[in-house]
């Protein structure tokens, strides 16, 4: 792959999807530098990596350093991990929207964010409503290139314990076989596919703003195939 000098920022690099995304971008010759804004240290160094530890709930304070060609936002918490609804919204709504606003202020053209299936600003379910409100606030900014990924249940092994999610994954291992046709978007999705699709979207024109799991998986195959040929 042709060496380039692109730069990117990742929010949520200590999570499952964000960590895989970071690993892929560090290995991608199109990128010269990857900056990670994080609350917790990554625990490793790399010649292409810049790590900025900060309070993500006060991301606006990082405006001078918030400069890149692309922003990848993989921030997200859970009801079990963050039972306080006010704090939950500060994370799942506040951080992505603050990041998108910094894109606007600093003339960063591309913003890619992981949302969730079922996101709906008019939903009576608090967690779906928060995600939907986040999407609406991001899109209202009118950034040149915005893509919102709406994955279903994300597979893979996490470092943290999530009992409810574990049970859901075991159930979905059975139900996934029944998810065909229009139901494909409900199938469990691999975090590697989310990361691969984010990278593909950042480097290719794509008309749609919101992408469900079935589309994410389809695009990921294109990116995986391209990487395997390099």
Summarize the SSE layout with pairings.
Layout: E1 6-11, H1 16-26, E2 31-38, E3 49-53, E4 70-73, H2 85-105, E5 110-114, H3 126-140, E6 145-150, H4 163-175, H5 191-203, E7 210-212, H6 213-228
Parallel strand pairs: 1-2, 1-4, 2-3, 4-5, 5-6, 6-7
Helix pairs in contact: 1-5, 2-3, 5-6
Biggest sheet layout: 7 strands, parallel
Per CATH, the architecture is: 3-Layer(aba) Sandwich
Please trace the helix and strand order, writing H or E for each element.
EHEEEHEHEHHEH
Structural class by helix and strand composition: alpha/beta
Low-confidence spans: none
Tally of alpha and pi helices: 6
Number of domains: 1
Shape: globular
Within the CATH hierarchy, at the fold level, what is the topology? Rossmann fold
CATH class: Alpha Beta
- Binned, the helix content reads 25-40%
Overall pLDDT: 89
What kind of assembly state do the chains in view correspond to?
single chain
Give the DSSP E fraction (strand runs of 2 or more residues). Answer: 15-25%
- Give the number of DSSP strands: 7
CATH superfamily, by name, is NAD(P)-binding Rossmann-like Domain
Distance between the termini: 6 Å
Strand order of the largest sheet: 3-2-1-4-5-6-7
Output the radius of gyration. 17 Å
Pfam family, one: NAD_binding_10
Organism: Maribacter chungangensis
Domain NAD(P)-binding: 12-129
Protein name: NAD(P)H-binding protein
